[in-house]
Amino acid sequence: MSSELNISVGIIGGGSMGGSIARGLVDSGLLPAARVLVADSDAEKRAAIAKTGMRVLADAPSLAAEEPDVVILAVKPQVLGDVMGQVAARLAGRCVISIAAGVSVATIEAALPGARVVRVMPNLPVQVRSGATAVTGGASATADDVSLACELFSALGSVAVMREDQLDVSGAVVGTAPAFFSLFVDALTRAAVLRGLPAASARELVETTMRGCAEQLLNEGVHPREYMERVTSPGGTTAAALRELEPALMDGTYAAVDAALARTRELAGR
Ligand SMILES: NC(=O)C1=CN([C@@H]2O[C@H](COP(=O)(O)OP(=O)(O)OC[C@H]3O[C@@H](n4cnc5c(N)ncnc54)[C@H](OP(=O)(O)O)[C@@H]3O)[C@@H](O)[C@H]2O)C=CC1
Ligand SMILES: O=C(O)[C@@H]1CCC=N1
């Protein structure tokens, strides 16, 4: 457990990421539920979040009026401009952390005059405190603001401070990777079912395998290529399989990351 911070955090947007961050911060012990405020326009999401003891508000202006010490912007990039317009006057002089893909620090600073802006790019496993978050401070942010953002997201997994252009790349890889990973789990499970395994067993075996491999890679610090070699018996089944999979997966992954990066720039109007 992390030691408790004596601040309040307001999160605008309590969806997949905002909700995960809120839960992660409370579960980590960094903040008591009563000092996490979440605004979401969806009543069902508000009801689910309220059950955890966090404070819920129906819109961004109501949250900003509570003057939380730090505000995390966790709505979609497409609505962020509107939301910032609704709360700009209240956020002057405050530390604001945006998780919106693509939207640049300069855009946020222009929309929120006087706010101290930090941009971060987390991923979904922040909810189970195994996330990975890239952090970049704007010209308006102090070193303390960047440190605070790092402290909040360190309670939810690993954190790396980097330049803003690198944060976009990190988002295209690390932000989207939970979906890539799930797609691979699903593909393996379907391949097993196609070749005759019962669906429930296939899924359990594949998911257990994924957890075991992740644990070994992390715990032993072994390079992925070396780990692959351990599995690949000369003249065996894995070598035959990798000859098929490797070119397709490599090309597909590079193309997928480039597509995510292109969409990041498109969302930012760049
Ligand atoms: N999902 C992910 O893995 C990651 C997402 N991000 C970024 O996080 C942000 C949120 O994404 P994600 O969580 O996936 O999106 P979601 O749609 O799940 O969450 C956004 C939430 O904000 C609510 N909302 C919309 N407008 C307002 C408003 N004016 N005031 C308050 N709440 C509002 C939405 O309600 P409603 O559904 O009713 O519109 C929704 O519940 C995006 O900017 C994305 O780029 C970053 C890293 C990873
Ligand atoms: O799909 C998206 O746009 C968000 C950003 C990174 C992961 N999910």
Automatic annotation (TrEMBL):
**Organism superkingdom:** Bacteria
* EC number(s) on file: 1.5.1.2
Main localization category: cytoplasm
Pfam families recorded for this chain? F420_oxidored, P5CR_dimer
Assigned keywords, A-Z: Amino-acid biosynthesis, Cytoplasm, NADP, Oxidoreductase, Proline biosynthesis
Task: Spell out the subcellular localization from the entry.
Answer: Cytoplasm
Q: Which PANTHER family match?
A: PYRROLINE-5-CARBOXYLATE REDUCTASE, PYRROLINE-5-CARBOXYLATE REDUCTASE 3
Protein name (Swiss-Prot/TrEMBL): Pyrroline-5-carboxylate reductase
The gene behind this protein is proC
